Amino acid sequence: GYPPQYARVEVPLHIVPSSGLGKACLESLIELPKILCQEEEEEYKKATADPELDLITKLQNSSVFTKSLCHIMEVMHGPLIQSLESRLEQNNAKIAELEKRQAEIQKLIDRN
């Protein structure tokens, strides 16, 4: 099946459930949209560097750049913000639950 320079190797994969986002994962989620926007900006600058461009081409390049940034916002930032807001609600609910439990335990301690 495989050419002699290639060999199939089975790599074990273990998926471990996590109750939250790690710091590295969160930082990556935040950095990715920034990197994508920087790439778009670099390409826009390359496309508009020629001083001989006519007005229509400049407008077209600007509109494509704007559309690309809006797409990044829609695809990356929107779900990220929704996810973080959802996580905040879960955290606030957990805090309220723990505070209630703490108050119950304190009442039991005070009775004894």
Give a description of the structure.
The chain is mostly helical and 112 residues long. Helices cover 73% and strands 0% of the residues. The chain has two helices and no strands. The protein has helices at 23-47, 55-111. Helix 1 packs antiparallel against helix 2. The radius of gyration is 26 Å and the shape is flat. It starts with 22 loop residues before the first helix and ends with a helix. The mean pLDDT is 89.
Task: Give the helix/strand layout.
Elements: H1 23-47, H2 55-111
Helix pairs in contact: 1-2
Primary descriptors:
112 residues; mainly alpha; 2 helices; flat
Structure summarized in a few sentences:
Keywords: Coiled coil. The protein has helices at about 25-45, 55-110. With about 110 residues, the chain is mostly helical.
Major sheet description: none
How many β strands by DSSP?
0
Low-confidence runs (pLDDT<50, min 5 residues)? none
Q: Multimeric state of these chains?
A: single chain
Strand content: under 5%
In N-to-C order, the SSE pattern is HH
Mean pLDDT: 89
